[in-house]
Design brief:
Layout: H1 2-14, H2 21-36, H3 42-64, H4 69-86, H5 100-109, E1 111-114, H6 116-125, E2 128-132, H7 138-151, E3 155-160, H8 171-177, E4 185-188, H9 203-210, E5 214-218, H10 219-226, E6 235-240, H11 244-250, E7 257-267, E8 273-277
Parallel strand pairs: 1-7, 2-3, 2-5, 3-4, 5-6
Antiparallel strand pairs: 6-7, 7-8
Helix pairs in contact: 1-2, 3-4, 3-7, 4-5, 4-7
C-alpha cells in the first residue's frame, strides 16, 4: 500500500500530455526498487538468458545456412525482430525449440515495415555502429545480428543499461551470455533508464552515441526515448509494436514487427520532431 500511495503521488506530479512513456516507466520502476530494496526482475532475467541460450545454436544454424551474405543478414535481422516479439519475460517461459519455425515464419509475415536492405547498405557504409540493446534473453539473439553487422566491416559497440530497470539487459546479463565475444566493445549507458535519458546517462556513453555513424535501437523503450533526441546519424529501429501509441506513430497496426530506418531528426515548429523515413 505504501508503494501504491507513492506511485499515485508520482503520477499526479509527473503525468501529462507531454510526458515521455519511457521516462515515466523509468521513474516508476526505480521508485519500486527504492521502496522495496530489491530488483524484482533479477531471477526472471537470469531465466530469460538461459532460455535464449538454449535456443541460440539452432538459430545460429538457421542464420548461417542462408545462401548468400544478404540472406544471412536478413535472417539475423528477422531473428532480432522475433526476439522482441517473443517476450521472454512472459511467453518465453514456455517457449520450446520446436516452436522456432513458427516464430520465424511470423517474424516475416508480421513484418509491417521492411527496411532490411536499406539497413544492410547503411551497415556497409558505417565504421561505427552503436547497438542499443533491450531486454535480457533478447540480448542473446541480438548477438547473431551483431555478428552479421561486423561481417560487413563495421565496428559494433553493444550497449546495455547502466543499472537494473525492468527486465532490461545490464552488464550482468552481458557477462552471463558472453556478449563481449561477438561485439567489438560492450558499454553501458551509465544509468538505470528505460531507453536513453540524456540528462542521466554518462559522458562516456554520450561520446559513443554522438560519434556513431549508425544507431541500431531495439524495442519500444529505445524508440520512445530516441525520438526526443537530436541525432545526426541514421537510426534503425527493430521492434514489435506492442502498444497503440507507438504503432500509430510508426503508421502500422499493433503487434507488428518493424525494421525501420530513419534519417537524422528534423526540428519542427512548436518543438515537436519528425523524421525522414528512408
Amino acid at each position: 500500500m505504501r508503494v501504491i500511495a507513492a506511485m499515485t503521488g508520482f503520477l499526479a506530479e509527473s503525468f501529462d500530455g507531454n510526458a515521455v512513456p519511457s521516462h515515466l516507466g523509468t521513474d516508476r520502476d526505480l521508485l519500486v526498487q527504492k521502496m522495496t530494496g530489491v530488483d524484482p526482475y533479477r531471477a526472471l532475467k537470469h531465466e530469460s538468458n538461459q532460455i535464449a541460450m538454449r535456443m541460440l545454436p539452432e538459430l545460429k544454424t538457421f542464420v548461417e545456412s542462408g545462401p548468400n551474405p544478404s540472406a544471412r543478414f536478413r535472417r539475423a535481422t528477422l531473428v532480432a525482430a522475433a526476439a522482441n516479439a517473443i517476450e521472454f519475460d512472459v511467453a518465453g517461459r514456455d517457449f520450446k525449440l520446436d516452436d522456432l519455425k513458427e516464430v520465424m515464419t511470423k517474424a516475416e509475415t508480421d513484418l509491417a515495415v521492411d527496411h532490411i536492405n536499406a539497413f544492410r547498405q547503411l551497415c556497409r557504409k558505417s565504421g561505427h555502429v552503436t547497438y542499443l540493446l533491450d531486454n535480457s534473453g533478447e540480448v542473446v539473439l541480438d548477438m547473431l545480428l551483431i555478428s552479421e553487422i561486423r561481417r560487413l566491416g563495421s565496428k559494433v559497440v553493444a550497449v546495455v543499461r547502466g543499472g537494473p530497470v525492468l527486465n532490461d539487459a545490464t552488464s550482468v546479463d552481458a557477462e552471463e551470455v558472453g556478449l563481449a565475444a561477438c561485439a567489438d566493445e560492450v558499454a553501458d549507458t551509465g544509468a538505470p533508464t528505460i531507453g536513453i535519458i540524456l540528462d542521466r546517462v554518462s559522458e562516456d556513453f554520450k561520446r559513443i552515441l554522438f560519434s556513431s555513424d549508425l544507431v541500431v535501437a531495439k524495442g519500444m523503450g529505445n524508440y520512445e526515448s530516441l525520438t526526443e533526441i537530436e541525432l545526426k546519424c541514421p537510426v534503425v529501429y527493430i521492434m514489435r509494436t506492442k502498444c497503440l501509441p507507438v504503432a500509430h506513430d510508426v503508421g502500422v497496426a499493433r503487434n507488428k514487427n518493424v525494421v525501420l530506418v530513419r534519417r537524422a531528426n528534423r526540428q519542427l515548429k512548436g518543438g515537436k520532431r519528425t523524421h525522414a523515413i528512408s
